[in-house]
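Here is an idea for our session: we take a single protein and study its fold together. Start from the sequence, derive the backbone structure tokens from it, and show both lines together. Once you have written the record down, we can walk along the chain together:
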Amino acid sequence: MNQSNKRVIFYSLIASLGGLLFGFDIAIFSGAIPFIQPDLDLSPSQLGWVASSLYLGCAAGTMTFGKIAERLGRKKSLFIVALIFGISSIAMGLSNHMNTIVIWRVIAGFSVGGASILSPLYIAELSPRHIRGKMVSINQLAIVIGILMAYITNYYLSFTSWNWRWMFMSGALPATLFLFFLPFLPESPKWLVFNGQREKGTKILGSLLTVDQLQAEIEHIDRQKNQEQKGFVIANIFKQGLGFLLLVAIVIAVCQQFSGANAVLFYAPIIFEKAGMDVNGQLFQQILIGSINLIATLIGMRFVDKVGRKKLLLIGSGGMALLLVLIGLSFAGTFIPSYLLSFFVITFIGVYAATLGPVTWVVITEIFPMQIRETAVGIASAFLWVACFSLTYLFPVIINSFTTLQTFLLFAGICFAYFIFILFAVRETKNNRV
């Protein structure tokens, strides 16, 4: 490995700490469910509201931080993300009322939404094309590490008297770690060149690319800058071809959420409670889920640049549709024995983590040209978080209103429809120049 690639990996690892914050915060609430629900006497709809309120902030954060990153750059924007995250984590843990927790979860979500677009965007703009998919997938790796860290934290804090409060406040630790390492990052060189700081941006790019790659990238940025349209940038997206790209990105983002994977990741205690497990068993199952999530993400990173984005999305959506049917049937216990439930759930998360999990973010960052990228990625990500809010709010109500078999068959149908969409509407993006 040459020195340039080592720098790219080092910077990508630091930037991916934003993904770690993202993963930690979306998963930490799941361990708090068995304790915060009786402590605050939350109904299923209230539980869904507290859990999902984070994603209202996420949707706002993706839209807002797209413009912030356009004006201030990627590095300063990431600093703002980490600072807000740390403060809001402590405030959530110290809150005594449901509405106060909701307010701070919306604020925390604002930073999580920013992290969800800024980290992969920064990494994509920093990485050479031949390793870009793998580098952007580092962000997804950090997300699943954050999820696993949250699950482990939940398990051990569950034995303390202030359990759900400590769970929330523990988010300040990864935020502090991110703030410590951020000074080591350079600004995105492509953002610098695109925004008139050509000499500084070229110098950073020169330390990351070969001479031929550098010249090609500078020429590519210049072409995109020359094509930049003044005025309202959202209107520019709907120029010929770009409106369809935005639609594809939105569907990819929304279907990642409605695939059912996040229902398992966020509400595993409720799901395994339906199978008769006690609280400790539920939280331990989450650690197993988080572990396979991490291993499968590493597998996905290995193949994303070799197999391609579209093939992995097809494998993922098709495989998940089948596994969701098996999960539902194992709950019913009619055709498939219930003791296979854990195996099917863990396999389902593994397929998701190797395919839809990382590939969604790779495609969203690759599909748009630079002159509309911040805005377009922000719009697609906002739809992702609106979908995540809807799923998180409705799942406790759905699983309380319908049978578990019906619930998982619904998700299976969504995955199958997504498979058809990918097959006919999505093009391979691995050779696109970012």
